[in-house]
């Protein structure tokens, strides 16, 4: 409902109780000062407010590699086409794991399927494994020495992480 409609209802309620109604600007300032998380929770319920909610305050201080790894997805700005008839197949998704301490990419996976627990699992396998055979299979001559088992994973509230 709009600010104008809310202010009209408030003015009517104040009039019914023989109270002076606040000015519209006063109401607007009070609404602007509300905590968005609490306001959404009261107005639309817990599920609607979940996307506004943080993951639990400040993360602990990170002091070593693999102590904290963050995983997330993004759509790659590219359209994959069929090699035979050049018809669009879709846009790929990148799932990536980054070590918070070193800021190095520990693992990744590119898929045409939307992010899921499978793409997260494949990314975690890539985090844990030696990358040399994978790089050799792609004829890439470089080192990627980062691998191991993360101590803590930090994830957003996406469905595939639940």
Automatic annotation (TrEMBL):
GO molecular-function terms, A-Z: nucleic acid binding
Domain Integrase catalytic: 61-162
Protein's GO biological process: DNA integration
Region (Disordered): 40-59
InterPro entries in alphabetical order: Integrase_cat-core, RNaseH-like_sf, RNaseH_sf
Protein's organism: Enterobacter hormaechei
Protein name per UniProt: Transposase family protein
Signal peptide interval: none
SUPFAM superfamilies: Ribonuclease H-like (SSF53098)
